[in-house]
Amino acid sequence: MRLPWRRTRPAGADDSYSLRRRLISTTLGSSIAVGLISTIIVLALAWKEVSDTFDDSLEEGARLVLALGEGTSVGGMPARDREAAQPSLRLDYQIVSRDGVVLRRGEDAPRRPFVDPGRKDDRFYDVRVDGERWRVYVRKHDALDFSVQIGQEWDDRSDLIVDMLASLAWPLVGLWLLLGVMNWWLIRRLLAPLENMARGMEDKSPSDLSPLVYDGRAREVQTVVTALNRLLGRLDHALEGERRFTADAAHELRTPLAALASRIQVMQRTLAADSPAAAQLQRLREDVARSTALVENLLHLARLDPESPDALRTEAIDAPALLEELVRVCAPAAAAREVSVTVACQVAMVTGNRDGLVMALRNLLHNAISYGRRGGRVEISATQAAAGVVLAVRDDGEGVSQADRERLTQRFFRILGNEVQGSGLGLSIVARVAELHRATLRFEEGLEGRGLGVLLHLP
């Protein structure tokens, strides 16, 4: 049943993201947005204040011009006044008669009135004259038949805001860059406990379920570490129960299997060798032997599973003596299949856990003898490599396909069509021993390009 609030995504789609990048982009983006909004508000307030100040200047200019017009014969005034210098605050005036004639004007003022003199009230106007926008203040003289119109181009006002914005732009960009660097540094430092915890998890081996150690003070990280430690504790308890059950069951099975094998041997002695019952007992004895081997392998795996590479006890081992001992142990099986086992040892010493290496090499040698060619040849060798020692077992049998080689170390995997009895745990034990030694397990061609070669590269 699909939950309605869960979002489905296509198979293979990657929805992962970086928490650090999202925090940086979110904080920096929100800061830039707030900065832009603040800048807009500041510019709007500045525009209002500047406009009020300019309007006051227009009104004051109108009073001055009106006072000048009262003390001067307007009719005798020149048509234009030419300013000697360009002031920073440019105001253009017009003295307009009642009938709309411009009696006097500033240098940049238009020839026609800004505003129709027929308007009665004194106020501010926004007008367009000769294609230019003007802010105009009109003040009329009641005694004399003229009015004063003071205008300022809107471009002069907007230029001030543009200059202010240009002055603010680079400081804002610099502050945002500084904010981005500070956010990156602070977020990286604050997320360091999570990264340390992740590295601690990565450093753990598959069999190491000990609690994580966190000495920081971040409560959120401590909560995650506590939850993980509880999960690791429950998992360790469950795995320990499984290992204990496997070991106890295998140990308890050894005694009845050994007793059953003894009873079968006693029964075989009472029967003729060529009787049908003797043949049935022989097959039963082989089944018991296979079950005993399975129990032994389960016991080995139960002992190896809780081990870790860091806690593995290693020692210097006499390599020639080790290989000769393995050949003697497997000599009966080799004689039964008429297999010739040779030793090629080019190193004097090898470092590792003796019990583990004996177990792994014995399984490899037994597999080579059992699954190789009857009457064939098996070689066990120890050679010096660039960074360690390579222990190898090769045969000249039929070999294993590339597809099956990738599954050889899986537990209980056996190649179909093979009549040799086995449990499918031998190479799993070899792989576990290699993992504990931090060694590399590799499969390749056997002797003379035939069969199978298993190489254990010890660092």
From TrEMBL:
<dbReference type="Pfam" id="PF08521">
    <property type="entry name" value="2CSK_N"/>
</dbReference>
<keyword id="KW-0808">Transferase</keyword>
<feature type="transmembrane region" description="Helical">
    <location>
        <begin position="28"/>
        <end position="47"/>
    </location>
</feature>
<keyword id="KW-0902">Two-component regulatory system</keyword>
<dbReference type="InterPro" id="IPR036097">
    <property type="entry name" value="HisK_dim/P_sf"/>
</dbReference>
<dbReference type="InterPro" id="IPR003660">
    <property type="entry name" value="HAMP_dom"/>
</dbReference>
<dbReference type="InterPro" id="IPR005467">
    <property type="entry name" value="His_kinase_dom"/>
</dbReference>
<protein>
    <recommendedName>
        <fullName>histidine kinase</fullName>
        <ecNumber>2.7.13.3</ecNumber>
    </recommendedName>
</protein>
<dbReference type="InterPro" id="IPR013727">
    <property type="entry name" value="2CSK_N"/>
</dbReference>
<feature type="domain" description="HAMP">
    <location>
        <begin position="188"/>
        <end position="240"/>
    </location>
</feature>
<keyword id="KW-0597">Phosphoprotein</keyword>
<dbReference type="GO" id="GO:0005524">
    <property type="term" value="F:ATP binding"/>
</dbReference>
<feature type="domain" description="Histidine kinase">
    <location>
        <begin position="248"/>
        <end position="459"/>
    </location>
</feature>
<dbReference type="InterPro" id="IPR003594">
    <property type="entry name" value="HATPase_dom"/>
</dbReference>
<dbReference type="Pfam" id="PF00672">
    <property type="entry name" value="HAMP"/>
</dbReference>
<dbReference type="InterPro" id="IPR003661">
    <property type="entry name" value="HisK_dim/P_dom"/>
</dbReference>
<dbReference type="InterPro" id="IPR050428">
    <property type="entry name" value="TCS_sensor_his_kinase"/>
</dbReference>
<keyword id="KW-0472">Membrane</keyword>
<keyword id="KW-0067">ATP-binding</keyword>
<dbReference type="Pfam" id="PF02518">
    <property type="entry name" value="HATPase_c"/>
</dbReference>
<keyword id="KW-0418">Kinase</keyword>
<feature type="transmembrane region" description="Helical">
    <location>
        <begin position="168"/>
        <end position="187"/>
    </location>
</feature>
<keyword id="KW-0812">Transmembrane</keyword>
<keyword id="KW-0547">Nucleotide-binding</keyword>
<dbReference type="InterPro" id="IPR036890">
    <property type="entry name" value="HATPase_C_sf"/>
</dbReference>
<dbReference type="GO" id="GO:0000155">
    <property type="term" value="F:phosphorelay sensor kinase activity"/>
</dbReference>
<dbReference type="InterPro" id="IPR004358">
    <property type="entry name" value="Sig_transdc_His_kin-like_C"/>
</dbReference>
<dbReference type="Pfam" id="PF00512">
    <property type="entry name" value="HisKA"/>
</dbReference>
<keyword id="KW-1133">Transmembrane helix</keyword>
<dbReference type="GO" id="GO:0005886">
    <property type="term" value="C:plasma membrane"/>
</dbReference>
